[in-house]
Fold these 2 entries.
Entry 1:
Amino acid sequence: MKVWNTGAVLFVAASIALAGCGNKENNQAESAEAGTTAANTANTTTESADAPVDLTDAMTGYKTYGIEQCDQFIIETEKFVTAVKNGDLETAKALYAPTRMYYERIEPIAESLGDFDPNIDARENDVPDADWRGFHKIEQSLWVNNTTDGMAEVADRLFSDVQALRALMETVEVDSTMLVTGAVELLNEVSSSKVTGEEERYSHTDLYDFVANVEGAKKIYELLQPALQAKDAELEAQIGENFTAMETLLAKYKSGDGYVSYTDLTEADTKALSQALDALAEPLSQMGTILEA
Amino acid sequence: MSEQGGTQDPSDQLRKDENTRQSGGMWRKAITRRDVLKLAGIGGAGLLLGSLGTGGILQAGSAPVKREAQDLAGSGVVDFYGAHQAGIATPPQDFVCFAAFDLTVDAVAQVRKLFQQWTEAAAVMTSGGMIGSSNDNPNLPPSDTGEAAELVPSGLTITFGVGPSLFDARYGLSAKKPDTFADLPAFSGDELRPEWTGGDIGIQVCANDLQVAFHAIRNLARIARGKAVLRWTQEGFQRSSHSDKAGATPRNLMGFKDGTVNPNVHDPKTMDEVVWAQADDGVPWMAGGSYMVVRRVRIRVEVWDRSTLQDQEATFGRHRRSGAPLGSRDEFDQVDLNAKDENGNPLIPMNAHVRLARGDNSVHLLRRSYSYSSGLDRTTGQLDAGLLFISYQRDIAKQFIPVQKRLASDKLNEYIVHNGSAVFACFPGVREGGYIGDTLL
């Protein structure tokens, strides 16, 4: 959940990034991008390193990823809301955090689609009390009041909001700027609320969100990897290394199929996670270099 | 806190130099950082303010020179390149931002790269420029964070050192560790806290504008992301040149003049004896460098404030108003430790700070301390304020440590507590084309 622009629905044509397409260098970059491994771009000439990069494949790939995550999000949300409505407190608690991960991976898209983020992911006081619904309202009931009572309507509403999000996903045109900034935004989400334990203030399942945000950012990085290789191989390698470091650190906190509670983290743990995140986000924020002409 | 040997307040010479520069008519108005770059391009950095060793030696105890020219000089450039790092012999600027870092990289090559990047950025920032080449690209975060744009360079200095922990097993540097270079031993009354202690790397940033100083630390920390993390930071201040036109010895937060005696930074012989590590000291990579001690000394402000003037003066061994040794009139009067009152008691008490700090006056070090204020101590509701003690010396084991040991019985200890400590080997200066630490890394 983050601060959203009211009603800002972005349907930005992909053509922005395609402007100037058709010249020689561009074709070269395109053919390089057709490959799926970084090695395919190793022969890219110096000229193409300075050329605008074609991000069509990356943008298409990200839309596909968003839809996949959203499809799975619907399936898991249905299980979660069913448990809530059946009064199955333990199952509902167990499903809460893993379900949310599908959303957390694709938050930048959801945020570009209007009011979905406040409806699905608002925390108490983020919105007027009367408008508060979504995951965190149920979270409060499950962990603070230790009951599913009174949550049936909220659960139904959540499910319909998630379905509506999925429907709109079809219409999304992923914009190249959204793509390069989206990865950093995902990590900024972690930095501002997850690493401080403020996101999941009742369930303390912040590390699930943390991991999912990092995974979502990594997906974008992977999609942009060929373009990044061609433009700035050193930056590409640095980001890759820092993702590995972040993942290695997060792996320490695995517990069963999930992650330990935020309350199990020491101050030193939190600091190390935060600093690893900053180390990753700094080079990641330079990915916009591929948009330079 | 204020009495270790020597005879000269370094800021006196600054004032004199400023007047010289003023009369020379070099700059009649404050200049912007951009102007400085232009000037540097035209005349070369040698024309700019802050070059050291240009003046003569003031006599001990001479009256401070008026400093009408402070605004002018405070805006200037202190050369980043040179035989010694700037920020040591440089007369103290108004503000300090100190930062200690811990390295997170695995290989010495990555440490080297970090110092190369830092060197490049430091050279640009101290000359008033903007870091990096993408400050106007809408698709990227600006390479310089921007808050110092168009500000005058403000005498910015950035001084780099490395701590004993750099020489552990990580980087294969253990054979190069100077023999006596180690974390300080525990001193009587220490209450060190981990959050203000140690560090692989220490960076002292000083400037006459806090925003300029902060900008430097912030951008160095940004460059370090993924290679080193901040371990602790501390800002500090002294009375600014604006509020003390006379340029008197600054007062610490206990209200006493602090820094009356210090080695003369303009006397190369003294500096070689007291401050600069020498080639034949056994550590070739430190020749021309200096060892820094940093101590975060909290003052028990509330306790001090309810002590009588008589107690306060007995604690320091000096008069509060004049700064003169007890029984004398002038701040720069010789300290006579043998002076007795009419009853035969020492005029300067046996446990007074001035007496213990001075000892037999055989050990000197260059002090470059600042006051600090860090808000409230939340457990007590009292002010967390005190002294960020910084000293430079040729050999910590022979200089700082014996002095600090003598202070075990200091009456001042009733009112202060050391809660942070670090030592750093500050590299020799860097030549253009080289990088900070290139003698070691």
Note: Chain B has one domain: 10-53+64-133+143-426.
Entry 2:
Amino acid sequence: MADAIEIDALTGGYETNTLFQRISLTFPKGAFIALAGPNGSGKSSLLKFLYKQLKPKGGTIWVEKTNLATLRQEALAQKIGFVPQNGRLDFSFTVEETVAMGRYANPQKDDEQRIHEAMRTCSILNLRNTPVTQISGGELQRTFLARALAQDGKILLLDEPVNHLDVAHQRSVMHLLQNLVTRGYTVISVLHDLLLAQAYSSWIIFLKEGAVVADGPTEEVVNEAILTSVYNVESYRIYDPYLNKELLIPRW
Amino acid sequence: MRRHLGWIILFATLLLALISLTIGSSKIGLFATIGVFTGHNTSATQRYIIINLRLVRIIASFCAGMILSLGGVSYQAVLRNPMADPFILGVSSGSSFGVALAIYFGLASRFGLPLFAMAGATGTTLFILALASRKRSSNTVLLLSGVAANYILSAAMTLLLFLNREQYQRILAWSLGTFSTATWNHVVVAALISLLLFLFLYKNHRNLDLLLLDEGSARSSGLAVESVRYRLLLISSFATALCVSFFGVIGFIGLMAPHITRLILGAKHQRLILPTALAGGFLLLLSDTLARVFLPSGELPVGIITSLLGVPLFLFLILKGRYRFG
């Protein structure tokens, strides 16, 4: 399988904290990739390197075989979309106007067909004239996702996309992401909920204190020993008849 | 109404300007006022009063209102803060300090107050921008730097006032804003600046939209966040500084006008910028007209009117319920 993104010996982080020391990773194309690890392990920071909010001190990041350092922000926007954790917009743009912002870097900025298609995919077309200040958290998350889809990139980065959503909304957003993967998108999502990660991701990366503890196919990587070494918790297995597979549950 | 808001404001402004032309200590009726422009039966004195005293301040207040409201639009987007106005980063306190300094050292009569106001405002702006360009300063760092600059410059100005109490009235009057000293030179410069600021912001309407997103979303959508923010801050601050140096500190227009038009038109800047500029111009012209009629003799500083008129209207609008921030 080709790689959507390849990180080669990345070193970098923040002014007072060099979080990553020569880490290397691959993100397989067309996979649903979960980024997991304790708070402060570097999951969100890793995403920041991928959309160029943070600049590496060393190493190279390849996005679809192009060196990220040589990509201008506008060119990158046509490859990678990002959905923030708890996205907020305090100004009364309509849902459609917010989604249309995703077209900023595209030559056809007002391509209504693409904007509507992104809204339809996220089931928010009926809300298109509603101000984002008047929609629910789940709808807002879908709006931000549609905005990222409208960019036309095939790689989606998501930082805790279902944080603060109720179970029904969590399920619908995760289904939507899974559906995008079947349509050829590469989804890279920070996920705190290990059950969601096991249920939906096909590839998982565990980070701890800026280091890669494990990465690979989810079913192979997630085991009791990894959870103990990453989170220092014990776990047990249950069989999920609907997913038809065993899931690892942390012991409370 | 949404589609025609710009035309409605423009028509209301022309009507208000006509009424405003007839108001003043010299009684010049509506027909005589119109006669000045059509060349019928008016004395040279009437022409002088209408053109050089009243029309000049009407256009000056309208242009200043445009600059301040456009500044408000820009600052609210750059700082991603609905409470931001063009003075939030210290332009007003910088210019007031410049004026107080000039008066204290007796330099005002030789060089004129606007020069010192401009120097104070520009100095403060450059200081804040230097901070903004350092590494990756967040909006919060910028805002706090502005608040800090406001406090320290206000304290320094109060100290100068305290040391030079007989000039207190003069500095206070200036700091509350007035168009009574407006000249045609001011008008030409203010009109040019308001036009350029409008064109600049209109060209940046998509950038302004994206700046209201979180930084990650804006950046990942392709926006070069730092350079766009820096450019917008620089241009808006200089336009505001110039306005303040001519006409003094006139609060609330920069906060109020963008919120009123957003309430009607939504937040998209492409739709918002022109009506906001016109609304700012209208509101300041209205305030200045009221400032001229409020007292039986003399006039009130216009800054008092903008707050007296603006705050209740503003509170009414934001408490109407449907309105959340913008």
Note: The interface with chain B takes residues 15, 47-48, 51-53, 73-74, 76-78, 80-84, 87-94, 97, 101-102, 104-105, 109, 131, 133-134, 144, 147-148, 151, 157, 159 of chain A (CB under 8 Å).
